[in-house]
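Hi everyone, sorry if this is the wrong subforum. Our group has a chain we'd like a structural model of before ordering constructs, and none of us has done structure prediction before. Sequence below.
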Amino acid sequence: MKLSCPHCQQKLEAPPEMYGQITDCPACANALQIPTTLPDNEINIPMQSQEHSGFFNKIKSLLLCPIKPYTLLMEMQKKWLEERNKQREDRQKLLKQQEQKKQQEEEEAKQLLRQQEENEIFLIRQEIITLRRSYAGCFYTDYSSKRNFDHDKWLEQVSRFKKWKMNGQSTAVFSDLVIKEIKVFEEQNRLNIQYNDAMTGIEYESYCKSLLEHKYWMCKLTPKSGDQGADIIAERQKKVMIFQCKRYKASVGNKAIQEVYAAKGHYNADDCAVVSNADYTKSARELAQSLNVHLLHHSDLDNI
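Answer:
Right subforum, don't worry. Here is the predicted structure as tokens:
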């Protein structure tokens, strides 16, 4: 270490092992205190960029402080921890804001879908009668008399309706929505007429007609006279069926089977049936089997 004597201004040089000791000046023999660190003007810290100047100033403060370097280190560590915690809080705050924004966007998208579905339901309900009729037309009976549903034909009908009325969800999704609304409509308009034994023959015919119409049949009651054995002429999916309605207390006999079979030929129908609240005689059942006439109870009309 190079230093000057404060008494005689003699230039001196002290080895490191003498730092902090008291010795005599070799020129003037006065007592001389050798400092423990370099003088401020002899500390040489290279010039750095502005962003590093704070760091080097802290290092310089450490080198110039012979008393409490540990305290400065603790303060530096404390400041560093504070900055790190602040950055962590800022990052968490940013992530929270991003999450809130994402949730808001998702909620807006859901609201938009709900609004779109409400608009579609409104249009469906306006045309529910037509759609219900189209839906019924997609059912068919195969060679084994099993009732099936033509899904492709139904999707074609729905796609046509969509192009006519709106643009929105896929045809399959929209089809499910239409079927759901049809079921709701049918539930709300469920047949409230109940059978009772006090019905007249004409009232019983109207009751059977309502049951058939609830199952998508387009029905027409024949005149009270000159009906040629037919009480109801029903049509569905281009199939015509003749019904004769008998509200009896006793069992239904052969005459009703003969009349409805004759009416089938007269109206050039595809099928025929006798509907009654009562049972059928053994002879009537045998005749109906040989003529291929259906013998039904009015409760069977829900499944026809």
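For your construct planning: The chain has a mean pLDDT of 79. The chain has three domains: 1-44, 92-190, 201-302.
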